[in-house]
Predict the structure.
Amino acid sequence: PAGVDTSFKRSGFIHPLWSPHGQVLTRIQPKDHYHHYGIWNPWTHTVFEKDTVDFWNIKGRQGTVRFAKFISQTNGPVFSEVKLLHEHVVFKKDGTEKIALNELQTIRVYKPSAKGEYYFVDITSTLSCATDSPLLIVAYRYGGLGWRATEKWDRNNCEVLTSEGRDRSNTDGTKAKWIIVQGSLDNDYGGAAILSYPANYNHPEPLRIWDESGNSGRGDMFVNFATTKDRDWLLEPGKTYTLKYRLVVFNGKFSKEMAESAWQYFSFPPLVKKIGRASC
């Protein structure tokens, strides 16, 4: 925004995320947290070449995440998809820059049913060290896939439910396979469920959730699958690491039964096998 420190400028995020009825579910650069960018996934407390680097709180000018290039784009009758490269950039103390981590991100959007008022957004991030140096992601209370939700939501008009039966008041710091965030949208209702894939690091993943008292009592909505909230994660050169999530974006009310069914379908999709015909 005009007049704001340029250290807050970055790319590599999703905004706007629209509900099926056209309401915007994300928010970027709110005055209370200029570094919040819709749906985004930087790491907070890391160590690279003996330096501590924060890719999340970018005002500190230790690091940032940048869109580098498109790998491919697909638009078709079944789904649309973009594959792109994000670079996790370190600002070295000598004034130079160095890429610590390459992130190949695939975003696929499709609607599995013409009847339901929902659609899927599949986000897959494949991480690999950009140099011969490892990147240590140190356990910290937030970091990874975050969602700063619409400014229309506050402590009075939105709700949270997790796979473990937790609500907004007692979710922060717990673990979950999935989480539903939904609330009032003008004269409508809707939100999104975020599903964590079973092969993700530290699954079921820890959560960082602002409860009803968040942001000086306003109760603004922020949700984060904080993969490394309670455990370090060492990313080593020559190896790849994958995180997969599915967003079910909907209007109307989303129940725990619907979320569990969606998670099962995401985690254990049916297998199709070709069986040859026996000769007579």
About this structure: The chain has a mean pLDDT of 96. The chain has one helix and 17 strands. The longest helix spans residues 256-267.
